[in-house]
Amino acid sequence: MITFFTPTNNHVIYYNKGKRTIRVFRSIDGQQIADMKCQSKVRQAMTTPDGLALVVGYEDGAVQMFFIVDELDPISIVHLNNWRKKQWETNIESEQKEIIEKQDEMEI
User: Strand pairing of 2-5 and 11-16?
Assistant: First the structure.
């Protein structure tokens, strides 16, 4: 079992070794806000200093990151929306590069 507060003390992270699940609870009211099934046994788990992401290391060597998004925490909502916008812009830029490269190849 792994249990700890995020650095901001807004959430509690709880890993159940038997069920291989990670649950996130809001500290202020104890409400569960996330329940994730893990792909294998968790060896290490920690949050980013801002408490907005959870990084999990598994026994098989895999590493996974989860955003902690709480509907009552506007900062986490803004963080997620900004990340999505950045991902979308990055995808558009790479698609535009591919189109330009294909056009250059066709001209040659």
Answer: antiparallel
| pLDDT of the residue at 108 | 56
Residues 6+ apart with CB under 8 A from 94: none
- Among the listed residues 66, 45, 40, 68, the one whose alpha carbon sits nearest the alpha carbon of residue 57: 45
Which strand ranges, in their side-by-side order, compose the sheet holding 21-26? Answer: 2-5, 11-16, 21-26, 32-37
User: How many CB atoms lie under 10 A from the CB of residue 48?
Assistant: 14
> How much is the pTM?
0.69
Beta bridge pairs of residue 57: 44, 63
Taking 70 as the pLDDT cut, the residues of the chain under it are 80, 83-84, 86-108
C-alpha dihedral over 72, 79, 38, 40, to 10 degrees?
-150
